[in-house]
Amino acid sequence: MFKIIGVLVGYHFFGIFGAVLGYIVGSIVDRYIAYGSGAVNPFTNAHRQSVFIEAVFLLMGKLAKADGHISQDEITHVEDFMQKLHMSSEHRERAIALFRQGAASDFDFEPKLNEFIAVCGHTHSLKQMLLVYLIVMALSDGRMDAAEESLLKGIALRLGYDQLAFSQLLEMVLNQSHFAGGRVPSANALDEAYKALGVKKESSDQEIKRAYRKLISQYHPDKLMGQGVPEDMIAVATAQTQEVQTAYDLIKKSRNM
Asked: In terms of CB atoms within 10 Å, which of 39, 79, 150, 252 comes out highest?
């Protein structure tokens, strides 16, 4: 929208040169509104993507080893994760090397987290997607160990999430996972659906719709790619969208929305 405004205003005052300048300025404003300040410059996308994917696999390794050992479920989860990304053999080897580096007992993740914050920290969705991937990893063996939760809390705090915000995100992702594959879980499905959207039973229809739209927007492929999530990793985010959709559909049906 601001591209058009910029062109019109620029042309009105400065002619063709002003229209070109207005288009450039308008594009920057549009990117800021759509993706956040961290994604204003599209030429930094490649660097953000590299830092993002390194942080994901290094921290996955650190998280998997947080309780002292790496379970078969966690190994399977990482293998499935890489398969969903359709990684080439070269990129797969790189990801495995990063995971093993992160799992080393003497690995200090702080420098990589500092780099992630410096490069990606101005873009909310990148921070949130990193935490979502790590939470799903921690839950891959069916439970979250106290050491894993403590590590996640520490990472979340560094990313700007206070304890309440982290607890809310954790509960949402945990309950979203109950709807994986489009399945509707147990007799508590409706309760879990509300938690998956981050709302309460007492929330109004409008509040529920607003929460749903916000989540769908956060996981939208174009938005994530614009902010620097690597294209290969969009498939994983799409799975989160499907879980949110299934939970929302259940709530709609129960309320005749």
From this structure: 39
